[in-house]
Amino acid sequence: MIRYLLKSKFLFVLSLLLSFIGSLGTIYFAFVLGQIIETAVNGNLNILSSEVTKCIIVVVAGELIKYISEFCRIKALANSSSSLRKDFFDSAMKKI
After folding, report:
1. pLDDT confidence of 1, banded at 50, 70, 90?
2. DSSP string spanning the chain?
């Protein structure tokens, strides 16, 4: 089964890497959200608007990374299952 995954290793590794980056983005989002709460409590509206903008950018970038990661994962799995089906069909036809 590993050899079928290795045929799409670039997409597989890219998917893992993007998933890791997405996880780091989630952690950063929690940090930014904490900064927003701290700034709102202090009442500094100038910093609050920049923190909210940063939060929106982090959310949009995170969702984009998740989308690309899922696309790569689905593409890698489709390539692997296609190769597996082809090999299975070829071996079944040889036995007939």
Report:
1. low
2. -HHHHHTTHHHHHHHHHHHHHHHHHHHHHHHHHHHHHHHHHHT-HHHHHHHHHHHHHHHHHHHHHHHHHHHHHHHHHHHHHHHHHHHHHHHHHHH-
Residue type, 28: Y
What is the sign of the dihedral through the CA atoms of 47, 50, 54 and 56? positive
* Inter-axis angle of helices 9-42 and 45-95, nearest 10: 160
* pLDDT category of residue 59 using cuts at 50, 70 and 90: very high
Phi-psi sector, 44: left (phi>0), alpha (psi -120 to 50), beta: beta
The reported pLDDT for the residue numbered 96 is 67
According to the model, what pLDDT value does residue 20 have?
Answer: 95
